[in-house]
Design goal:
With 525 residues, this protein is mainly α. The chain has 18 helices and 4 strands. The protein has a domain of 153 residues. Helix 1 packs antiparallel against helix 2, helix 2 packs antiparallel against helix 6 and helix 15 packs across helix 16. It is globular. The protein starts with 19 loop residues before the first helix and ends with a helix.
């Protein structure tokens, strides 16, 4: 990570890249057995993973074919990939009865993966395969969690039976995103490890700034360790979720022994800090790297203590604050001593004339990183504080919208388009009984309707397609005024202790009628 990229990349045997897709499937299947998910290893259950894994393998074939047959033009190879992808997806769906989403993912992984592989982005092709396989692993884990968690709960005090549907969905969504993120990070780690060993080393894109040395060599070790720490953080989070009681998983804060679990954002931010530390190591900012890493670790340990995940009576007495101060102070002393040690310290930072590969990467791809981060943040906000509350409105238990009559009339127009395949021009219910012209231009209404048409085949409840389409395109219309977030990514104790036991009074800064919706649209735009 901190050496100049070698001009001649190590070129392994061209067929070794075929091993990565089966490896992703085997790791996913092994995870289902190790964790104890309700996942029978039958052909029907394994078919989506196998289909995606086969697509990942087939995505490397065009590159192998181009290397063995230089006379084939790139357009011929691309056309063959498109034909194979769409014909294969249709055959999987109609002849073998494979789920439509799995068949669609077969085509996407094959087309996109082969395109990345042919352009020398072998690492991203590996990440795509692992993420696609991990999606089905996450689906299996979320299904297991949803079936295991109750939608009603008997409170220990008073024995009152309360609905926990929102909290059940909230915990299920945490499981889904945790497993999916874990698979994607495992793909990143596999891409770094396989670079120059199982796959050729890409010479363009984000990974081009990595040295072609092996992943455990000194040159690439900071990034490899950072990705391993990130993966272990999610593994630890999932393990802790599976080890706590049901009220901790649901987030029922009024239970006596409630302390929550190590949630999604703790694991995600731990990985971000690990990558930041790796960048500092590449710049030879070892003192800063030790300070940031140790303080983040101390903060996590202290926050778990405060939440009740672990407890030590000595740290909770009157001397507790001084003891925590002592931990912080002596960690700082240790860092200072190492930094000034004659043998281990005294290092010099990199100057402008010798930039690290990490610095060169940020110079060339910093904008792309910021765009990817903005997309992720926007998606997280939509899921945790927007999509979830929209699904279970207070009082009705169904989809809901806010902002007055305007969004409801928009849905009326979209429903008319879906029912009649035509735009609602004259509305007899406007100025009833006189009637009137629909004042809305057709473009936005039809974009919502077309989105619902595209989503309908992939949903178990096709009637919900119009709601999901409006959810995606109209950020300030679909929401519940007071219901909690059943699809939020984590159940952090610090947040839930400020809310009611079932989260019904939790407010969200992104559920007010108009400004947050416009803010969210601006962020995603």
């Amino acid at each position: 990570m901190n050496e100049e990229t070698e001009t001649m990349a190590q070129q392994p045997h061209s067929a070794l890249g075929l091993l990565l897709a089966p490896l992703a499937v085997l790791l996913a299947l092994a995870t289902t057995q190790v964790v104890g998910l309700e996942y029978d290893l039958t052909a029907e259950n394994m078919m989506p993973m196998l289909v995606v894994g086969i697509a990942g393998m087939l995505a490397t074939v065009p590159r192998l074919l181009s290397q063995s047959r230089p006379d084939l033009s790139s357009s011929t190879v691309s056309l063959g990939v498109l034909v194979l992808a769409f014909v294969g997806a249709e055959a999987l769906y109609t002849l073998l009865g494979v789920d439509m989403l799995a068949a669609f993912m077969f085509a996407v992984v094959l087309v996109l993966g082969s395109n990345l592989d042919l352009r020398g982005r072998h690492e991203w092709a590996t990440v795509l395969t692992f993420a696609a396989v991990g999606f089905w692993l996450a689906m299996a884990a979320a299904n297991h969690a949803f079936n295991a968690l109750p939608d009603t709960y008997n409170m220990s005090e008073g024995g009152q039976l309360v609905s926990t549907l929102n909290l059940q969905r909230q915990a299920t969504a945490y499981v889904f995103f945790a497993y999916w993120s874990m698979a994607a990070i495992a793909g990143l780690l596999a891409a770094v490890v396989a670079r120059g060993t199982l796959n050729p080393a890409g010479d363009s894109g984000w990974f081009a700034y990595l040295s072609t040395h092996r992943a455990w060599s000194r040159n690439v070790r900071p990034l490899t360790v950072a990705l391993a720490v990130w993966l272990l953080a999610f593994i630890g989070s999932v393990y802790h979720f599976n080890s706590v009681d049901v009220w901790d998983q649901l987030g029922i804060t009024t239970e006596t022994d409630y302390h929550g679990y190590i949630g999604y954002w703790t694991a995600f931010l731990t990985g971000a800090i690990a990558l930041l530390v790796a960048w500092m190591v590449a710049e030879r900012w070892y003192t800063r790297a030790m300070l940031v890493g140790s303080m983040w670790a101390l903060y996590q340990v202290a926050s778990w203590f405060e939440a009740g995940i672990w407890y030590r009576e000595d740290l909770d007495r009157s001397w507790g604050a001084l003891i925590w101060f002592g931990f912080t102070f002596f960690i700082g002393v240790a860092i200072y001593s190492i930094a000034n040690h004659e043998k281990y310290g005294g290092w010099a930072n990199r100057g402008e004339h010798e930039p690290s590969q990490a610095r060169l990467f940020m110079r060339h791809h910093g904008t792309g990183v910021m765009f990817a981060l903005a997309f992720f943040v926007g998606l997280a906000i939509r899921v945790q504080w927007y999509a979830g509350p929209s699904m279970n409105a207070f009082g009705t238990g169904n989809w809901d919208m806010t902002g007055g009559s305007d969004p409801w009339y928009m849905k009326r127009v979209v429903d008319y388009i879906l029912a009649n395949n035509a735009h609602l021009v004259y509305d007899a219910d406007r100025f009833y009984p006189i009637g009137g012209i629909n004042p809305r231009p057709p473009l936005f209404s039809w974009s919502l309707a077309l989105g619902a048409m595209m989503l309908e085949p992939f949903l178990a409840q096709p009637e919900a397609a119009v709601w999901w389409s409006m959810l995606a395109c109209q950020p300030c219309t679909v929401r519940s005024p007071s219901s909690p977030s059943p699809l939020s990514l984590e159940s952090t104790s610090a947040t839930q202790q400020r809310s009611s036991p079932l989260g019904s009074s939790r407010s969200c800064p992104l559920t007010s009628p108009t400004p947050p919706g416009h803010l969210l649209t601006t962020m995603l735009s």
